[in-house]
Design brief:
Structural class: alpha/beta
Strand content: 15-25%
Helix content: 40-55%
Mean pLDDT: 92
Strand order of the largest sheet: 2-1-3-4-5
Oligomer: single chain
Low-confidence stretches: none
Shape: elongated
Distance between the termini: 32 Å
Amino acid sequence: MRIAVLDDDRLQLELMERIAHEMGHTCSLHTTGQSFQQELRRETFDMLVVDWVLPDTSGPEVIQWARTNLEHAPPILFITHRSEESDIVEGLQCGADDFMVKPLRLAELKARIHALLRRAYPLCTDDVQRFGPYTFTRSALTVAFEGQEVLLTHREFALALLLFQNAGRLMSRDHLRESVWGQNPDVLSRSLDTHVSRLRQVLQLRPGNHYSIAAVYGLGYRLDAHEN
């Protein structure tokens, strides 16, 4: 999973990055609301962690912006020194999903991150997963479309399953590359485009069918479901 963190305390950012990596997630760090919002305009994340007091804005304003401007705003964890009941209420009312008071207790932080991600993205470990006329079989790395089996490479299968599990959600190019290829700087952008093009062809992911893949210029791809 990808987590974006906004905090003007460098030590706090280092702590969040370490915790995220220990949990197997990647982390993007920001010290200003401006840089945070700029990245959210071009990248997608599975979770946001936001501090209250910032040099150029406030945590509640950032969260309200995210809820208003992001098509699919991810779960948001508010972290702050403020501990009054009125502060907690304000933090949740502005759009945060959970609230923690500094200093952070690390075991609790991990538990809350895990709980938010689990609720937002239920982990399905079933070997067979169905999406309309598509049946994914993880052990065989195959997809059956209307009963017709399609054999995919490991990465094609991983990319297709990721897109179906996030249908309707814009996935940035870096998000898709990191999820399928990992943190590999040598993976070229055209590798992703080639894989998407093949999936569009062999799985018939085009307008007029049950699902289609839309390229969002400069951002990434989105799998859309259609009623037939």
